[in-house]
Amino acid sequence: MEKPYAPACDRNRQVILEVLKKIIDENCHHLLEIGAGTGQHAVYMAPHFPQMKWVVSDVAAQSLGIKMWLKEASAKNIEGPIRLEIGKDDFPTDRSFQVVFTANTMHIMAWKQVKSMIKLCGKRLRVGAKMCVYGPFNYNQTYTSESNAKFDQFLKARDPQSGIRHFEDVDKAMQQAGFTLLEDIAMPAHNHFLIYQRRLHGS
């Protein structure tokens, strides 16, 4: 098998890293990446946070490709890949995560899976933990660019259950799961970086 490669990861990795550097401090010891894909983000970013274990997870089909990237990188603070299929698998139970990071996953998943992922994070993350989501979103039921509109059409033609999510729907699901939006950062290529923090339910 040839090592998989996602060009988008090389294009967005530095701008994502700059945001994560503002979020992750010396008190953050474990980060869980949901939907690690090829593993490129972990390989590039984890060395910048030597005090933290970066745990990669994805569906079983992605495992071999991730292992190829991790073996070549030999990064000491990356763990996994762990199989995490939303709707079927739970978080690793041997540790607590201060940060969950997921990039370009919500528009690939069915909406039901997106809500399941959010509920799982709400159930497993402790108060104060952060959930960071990167990707394209619609606002006020409207595409933010012509390129996003075309991308959405492409996604839905391939899988009718996928597609760019409406920020308002995501935010409502996050609020219901016990999260508060800390920041919505506009990123290059009409993407956004959403930073949520787990709060006490009802607070």
Structural overview:
By secondary structure, the chain is of the alpha/beta class. The chain has one domain: Rossmann fold (3-Layer(aba) Sandwich). Helix content is 35%, strand content 24%. It has six helices and nine strands. The chain has helices at 7-23, 40-45, 63-73, 111-124, 146-158, 167-176, and strands spanning 30-34, 53-58, 78-83, 99-103, 130-135, 137-138, 165-166, 179-187, 191-198. The strands form two sheets. It has a seven-stranded mixed β-sheet, sandwiched between helices. It has a two-stranded parallel ribbon with strand order 6-7. Helix 4 (111-124) packs parallel to helix 6 (167-176). The chain is globular and about 45 Å long. It starts with 6 loop residues before the first helix and ends in a 5-residue tail after the last strand. The relative contact order is 0.15. The mean pLDDT is 95.
Brief description of this entry?
The protein has 203 residues and is α/β, with parallel strands linked by helices.
Mean pLDDT score: 95
Shape descriptor reads globular
For the record, the CATH architecture stands as 3-Layer(aba) Sandwich
Structural class: alpha/beta
The CATH superfamily turns out to be Vaccinia Virus protein VP39
> Distance between the terminal alpha carbons, to the nearest Å?
50 Å
CATH topology: Rossmann fold
Helix and strand element order: HEHEHEEHEEHEHEE
Question: How does the major sheet shape up?
Answer: 7 strands, mixed
